[in-house]
Amino acid sequence: MIKTSTQNELIQYVYNELADDAREQLETAFMHDEELAETCSELLLIQNLLNGAIRSPKDRPIENILNYSKSLSLQS
Asked: Domain limits at 34?
């Protein structure tokens, strides 16, 4: 099991938010800890998938919301 502090460091590493010395220490740890390196690899893959995700709603839900809003304003 990876310690919580290490998990936080991995997240910071993935998002390039780790200080240079801490980053170097973590990269050295990757060479000695296969589980840690694999976990980092999985996080990098997840980050890559999330960056490619569609971030806008489909047209149909927007139409539903607008129609609902119009129906409320007509009732007033």
From this structure: 4-75
* Amino acid, single-letter form, for residue 70: K
Q: Count CB atoms within 10 A of the CB of residue 51.
A: 8
Q: What angle (nearest 5°) sits at the alpha carbon of residue 68, between those of residues 65 and 70?
A: 110
| pLDDT per residue as tens digits for the range 25-72 | 999 999 999 999 999 999 999 999 998 887 788 899 999 999 999 888
Q: Is 7 exposed, middle or buried (0-12, 13-18, 19+ CB in 10 A)?
A: middle
Going by C-alpha positions, the residue among 16, 24, 14, 19 that lies closest to residue 44 is 14
Type of residue numbered 36: L
User: Which pTM does this prediction carry?
Assistant: 0.65
For the chain, the domain total comes to 1
Cα(71)–Cα(65) distance, rounded to whole angstroms? 10
